[in-house]
Specification:
The chain is mainly beta. Helix content is 0%, strand content 59%.
């Protein structure tokens, strides 16, 4: 039983900033990768950024230089600092985690948060 909870969404003007937070809890042995995805109305869910347990990061081209992802392995949390926001960033943002739940199995499972709305006005 693993839960992910996002917070920090809201409405901002273009050029503004928001900071999203994700907290994972439950039966967690380790988390290999945490990431942020987003989904706009009528569009497919897309990867925004990901971060490994070692701190290696990937960003989509559309957010490079504007967004920064960070992670605290001890607390099982991840943050997404979003700067210079654009109207096209408007979407529901979802936290994702690839979680090992058992000491006896090396399998990792995908978990998703409930999503938080980010709206950027022009």
């Amino acid at each position: 039983q693993v839960q992910l909870v996002e917070s920090g969404g809201g409405l901002v003007q273009a050029g503004g900033s928001l900071r999203l937070s994700c907290a994972a809890s439950g039966s967690i042995v380790s988390i290999r990768t945490m990431g942020w995805y987003r989904q706009a109305p009528g569009k497919q869910r897309e990867l925004v950024t990901s971060i490994t347990s070692n701190g290696d990061t990937d960003y989509s081209d559309s957010v490079k230089g504007r967004f920064t992802v960070s992670r605290d392995n001890a607390k099982n949390t991840a943050d997404l600092q979003m700067n210079m926001l654009k109207p096209e960033d408007t979407a529901v943002y979802y936290c994702h985690a690839n979680v090992r739940k058992s000491l006896f199995k090396s399998q990792y499972y995908d978990y998703w948060g409930q999503g938080t709305q980010v709206t950027v006005s022009s």
